[in-house]
Write a structure and sequence with these properties.
This protein has about 200 residues and is of the alpha/beta class. About 20% of the residues lie in helices and about 25% in strands. It is built from four helices and eight strands. The chain has a six-stranded parallel beta sheet. Helix 3 runs parallel beside helix 4. It starts with a strand and ends with a strand. The protein binds pyrazine-2-carboxylic acid and zinc ion. The site of pyrazine-2-carboxylic acid has 9 residues, from helix 3.
Amino acid sequence: MRKALIVIDVQNDFCPGGALAVPEGDQIVAPINDLMAEFDAVILTQDWHPAGHSSFASSHAGKAPYEMVDMPYGPQVLWPDHCVQGSQGAEFHAGLNTTRADLILRKGYNPEIDSYSAFFENDQTTPTGLDGYLRTRGISDLTLVGLATDFCVNFSAVDAAKLGYQVAVRTDLCRAIDLDGSLAAAQDAMASAGVSLL
Ligand code: VGL
Ligand code: ZN
């Protein structure tokens, strides 16, 4: 059984000082680097939005960050502008070991659809290609770490479990945004999907 470490969105904008800062987001960087040695493959994901992305509150007249909007694919939280393609905020945290990565998967590049999950865009149907990559490499066992626990880590872990992978989340190596109980809801969703919360 081949094992991959999937490092979700350890980018400047999700770390203290960033546009969508996750409290203590930078504190997981060094221990994630240390964990990489235990895996056959290391995959990094990178939130990668075009300017004016539909998940940005600034793209919706009269809306503020963290309000909700109805998109054709369902309800969507509106975010501050973040992880704009080519910006400093979209770069990985400078301390993250990117050299060890076999694959860097970018997501959220479709202007009309957000993509929390590393596997499917938020319409729950458009694939990112990661499932094909992992299957063709014979990888069946995934450990997820990164930012943020209640959004991109949660959606990625639940999709991976639905796709049939053995999935564990190292919750000590994740940090949460925690909007209105979203962390507790995410923990429930992951546990019900069969994800091991470590
Ligand atoms: C994320 C909100 C918007 C995440 C990405 O990485 O959890 N959250 N874009
Ligand atoms: Zn985003």
